[in-house]
């Protein structure tokens, strides 16, 4: 009972992360910008590093807004360079941005050697240490972003699924791309501080990939992704306490293990369907 009581807040935080990231992951996978989460997270880290180097409180409001401003800059860059007629894929720009932001953060970190532990906490995260205030603040923020995406879901989904058709219908692709990446930046900036870069990346990508193994429609993929994220969060938090291991890393490994099980189940299911199809075809041929 003590362990379960200790895990209540981390589990609620995990559910909040699952809810918003599984949805955003559908867009990210459809757009083919798998590593945009890591790039925006690194840009946010660069902003926080510069704020710390300037002598600001790493947990203060000013540091947060500077970090968010850098994330918005990254969102603007990604929305401007995207084009269906571009010779260079957007993923290349995302990789370059990640590398430059990482190098710049290292340079800025060298000027703030006394605060490197705070930077490590921001990048690695510790979801077990989440407070009730953090949970409430994150829930309100993500609830607002979720409502924004729900209201304009048709525009966001049309751009992610078929940008050419959206552009032909008169939708301003670059404007709505910026709004998507800007709202995404809000989520990343807050999530990384709670859970760390690797865990946030898993919440974004793994449930969506696992859901794609069994469903094509958006609604079913979201249902599978949310279910997977909830179960993995509960199991990962429990295993981290039971084995006294780092929470974020344990949940990431749990995500990997569950995704492997889902892939094996998918392969076996496809084989069963294939065998049924062959047997049905044979019966049709041999039937008088």
Detailed description of the structure:
With 288 residues, the protein is mainly α. The chain has one domain: ABC transporter involved in vitamin B12 uptake, BtuC (Orthogonal Bundle), CATH 1.10.3470.10. The protein is 82% helix and 0% strand. The protein is built from 13 helices and no strands. The protein has helices at residues 2-6, 8-31, 36-53, 61-81, 90-109, 116-124, 132-151, 153-161, 163-168, 173-195, 197-212, 218-242, 247-286. Helix 2 crosses helix 8 (153-161) and helix 2 packs across helix 11 (197-212). The longest helix has 40 residues, at 247-286. It starts with a helix and ends with a helix.
List the helices and strands and how they pair.
Layout: H1 2-6, H2 8-31, H3 36-53, H4 61-81, H5 90-109, H6 116-124, H7 132-151, H8 153-161, H9 163-168, H10 173-195, H11 197-212, H12 218-242, H13 247-286
Helix pairs in contact: 2-7, 2-8, 2-11, 2-12, 3-4, 3-5, 3-10, 3-11, 4-10, 6-10, 7-10, 10-11, 11-12, 11-13, 12-13
